């Protein structure tokens, strides 16, 4: 991302000859594609973690009130 920002700054300065500007533009598009691939991969990893979280029976907070017990205690009624 930093390389892309530097490239944009050089191009915006307007001091590059046309041929070099075209090369820089092409390089910029490659960098954008690379950044997008990294973001897509990160999103896939996040989606994968959300869809299939780690085994919750191994550790975790035993006092987490948001979890529903697999075998609720029939004597544990809220009323």
Short synopsis of the structure:
With 79 residues, this protein is mainly alpha-helical. It has a domain at 2-51. The protein has helices at 2-13, 18-51.
Characteristic key phrases:
single chain; 79 residues; mainly alpha; 2 helices; 58% helix
**What share of residues is helical?**
55-70%
Name the overall outline.
rod-shaped
Radius of gyration: 26 Å
Pick out the low-confidence regions.
none
The total strand number stands at 0
* Mean pLDDT reading: 81
Classification by helices and strands: mainly alpha
Describe the sheet with the most strands. none
Can you count the helices? 2
Calculate the terminal CA-CA distance, rounded to whole Å. Answer: 57 Å
Order of helices and strands: HH
Could you tell me the strand content as a percent range?
under 5%
Q: Would you give an account of this structure?
A:
With 79 residues, the protein is mainly alpha-helical. It has a domain of 50 residues. It has two helices and no strands. Helix 1 runs antiparallel to helix 2. The radius of gyration is 26 Å and the shape is rod-shaped. The model has no long low-confidence stretch (mean pLDDT 81).
């Amino acid at each position: 991302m930093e390389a892309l920002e530097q490239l944009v700054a050089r191009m915006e300065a307007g001091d590059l000859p046309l041929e070099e500007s075209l090369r820089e533009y092409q390089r910029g598009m490659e960098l954008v594609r690379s950044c997008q691939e990294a973001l897509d991969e990160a999103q896939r990893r996040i989606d994968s973690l959300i869809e299939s979280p780690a085994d919750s029976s191994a550790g975790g907070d035993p006092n987490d009130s948001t979890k529903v017990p697999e075998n609720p205690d029939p004597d544990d009624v809220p009323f």
